[in-house]
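Recall that a protein's primary structure is simply its ordered list of amino acids. Everything else, from secondary elements to tertiary packing, is in principle encoded there. The following example makes that idea concrete.
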Amino acid sequence: MQIETIGKYQLHLVAHELPGGREWDPFVTILKFDDSAGDFRCVVEKRRASETPALSYEEALEVARRAGTELLKHQQL
């Protein structure tokens, strides 16, 4: 798992290896810092970042990063 911070948001990037070990499913979870609670709260539950598996772990994390960044740009979280 990798965590990226963008402003008050954290992207939790995960890749799960598929059976056979040749492809990876990318996933992203988004948390937002809640000032009143002084902690992060989940605003987007873990979701698949692409219907197409990636060919490497690193590629899967990059796909998850792009998907999470797009979600932040296009949604009011």
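Strands lie at 2-6, 9-17, 24-34, 39-48. The two ends are 22 Å apart (CA to CA).
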